Amino acid sequence: AKTPVKVTVTGAAGQIGYALLFRIASGQLLGSDVPVKLSLLEIPQAIKAAEGTAMELDDCAFPLLRGIEITDDPNVAFDGANVALLVGARPRTKGMERRDLLEANGGIFGPQGRAINEHAADDIRVLVVGNPANTNALIARSAAPDVPAERFTAMTRLDHNRALSQLAQKLDVPVSDIKKMTIWGNHSATQYPDLYHAEVGGKIAAELVDEAWLRDTFIPTVAKRGAAIIEARGASSAASAANAAIDHVYDWVNGTPEGDWTSAAVVSDGSYGVPEGLVSSFPVVSRNGRWEIVQGLEINEFSRERIDASVRELEEERDAVRALGLI
Ligand code: NAX
To answer: Could you tell me which residue ranges the Lactate/malate dehydrogenase C-terminal domain spans (predicted)?
Structure first.
């Protein structure tokens, strides 16, 4: 029998946590033959709610679920963790400056990074979902010098999936007909969903749509989808965010299909002019359990400007957290 994989979820009592935990426990995160142990990290005020969710997990009698731990101590939560989903974060509240937001999140992701450094399993894989996700991942990574940088990632898979869906609807094709979609840069309104490499039935997507739609409809619709969901639902994306987290980790562990790639924010090695060390979204494939940035793509002027703008924002965030002593 396989030994259970320990999956730590922070912010477990939140709305993404509620959409995520049941799918992890049912085997969708790692595979239908991989037993899991869940560790739920929450702040003290939310422990009771996490216990309620754990009761419901019990009541599902998932055959793969081999235990649930609930704690407010990162050192306990990450002890022996193989996968860490960092969902809990400090949201931006009214009147809050970016500096305050980054500082509050530094207070969460710094200590969590240190706990991962000291206690996680050697094969730890970290996905940061909590916003600002890229920079929170940068903070956690800086606090974990003994963990290889490639183990720290941030989520742009939801943006990727949104881009697939918008394009599929526009062209009236199934999502499965689209390959090689890319989200570049930051998980923010500056992100750049790239149709110049995406393929639909072997044709370049950008050639199948008019430029005005690409520029004035597609890009802003994908980039501002989060706000549109809040407007419609009265709450931010939860099930779709959980779904994207599942997709990200599943592909990381099990590999991406031949002839396709996906998007993930990974620590830059300098590819495509993205400064080394920034956690930025790239086209990636997963091979042997590691993300690799797809190399050799030609970047046209239109794309270059947009990638650069998003990367500039990431640099500003990095400089701000550096000035605050968070990295
Ligand atoms: P909720 O407010 O419903 O839940 C967050 C949970 O985190 C709460 O239960 C809170 O008690 C907990 N928490 C706060 N600080 C913590 C700490 N130090 N340790 C452990 N737990 C802590 O938010 P939810 O809707 O679940 O969203 C979670 C995060 O995901 C937010 O930062 C949100 O902005 C971000 N998102 C990121 C997305 C992405 O694509 N990368 C998309 C969806 C989502 O907006």
So the answer is: 156-321
